[in-house]
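[step 3/7] fold_predict: job queued, chain A
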Amino acid sequence: MDSPPPSTLAAVLRELHALLRDHGEKQWMEWVQTDLRYLEKGDGYGAEHFLRAFGGMGSLSDLIICPENGHSIAATQVDLVNSRLQSLRSRAYELARAFS
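[step 4/7] structure written:
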């Protein structure tokens, strides 16, 4: 099976970046921005770097966007936004894994 082009992963990461930015999640927004810079140049290292965001305590996998974590979000939007976060995070992970 052929791996997807870097532009496919970049498109998902752009959405993830926007979601993180919109809710004030600076650390992971900057991480994803770094990955995007590589991928937008056609450099697959962005996929490898993205995968390093997973595993261990405090990883991207553990992120929950909510007011209690200092994010800009209404309590009524927490479930919806975190559902979208999980969807984007999972899709990006799958695409990044396809490069390895």
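[step 5/7] annotate
The chain is about 60% helix and 0% strand.
Residues 6-97 form one domain.
exit 0
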